[in-house]
Amino acid sequence: MKRKNEAHDIVIESITDALLILMRKKPIAEINISELCTRAGVSRVSFYRNFSSLDEILIKYLKKCTDDWWEGFSKKEEDEFRATFWDELLAQYRKHEDLIHLLQQNNRTYILKDHIFSCCGPKPDHDERMAYICALIAGAIYGYVDEWIRRGMKDSPMQIDLRNLISLTEL
Prior knowledge:
Elements: H1 2-25, H2 33-40, H3 44-50, H4 54-73, H5 78-95, H6 97-105, H7 109-120, H8 128-150, H9 162-168
Helix pairs in contact: 1-2, 4-7, 7-8
């Protein structure tokens, strides 16, 4: 069983790596599944067994890049969470700067937005007030990160205390 999972992981990694390599050479709109599979050394069946689209590769890869960090970070005590959120979030995106730039260059920053909303946006079990608060916070985080990316991810923007952002929801 382990051997089968390893083979599956290698296929996923090969397809993902091939897409990123191709995206460094040309826009994603010019990449087709056959070309991707040839570059990855896998069959089209392997592609469709794992993904429904090129965007899905990027979505799963972004999730893989940040899930371990988010899972641990989101369990921090509230004061530590608020004090370190921006620095750690931006550090994660800097760590995967190549991916972030490829998303931006290919008009795929909505993948980043969707990812942020899946982490800290409204959940089905939230009451109405909490759902709106989470939507507001997730939207603000995305807007902040998107602007930082547009400005080249060079410097950390002026530190924004998450408490100030959250306090807006208490008005």
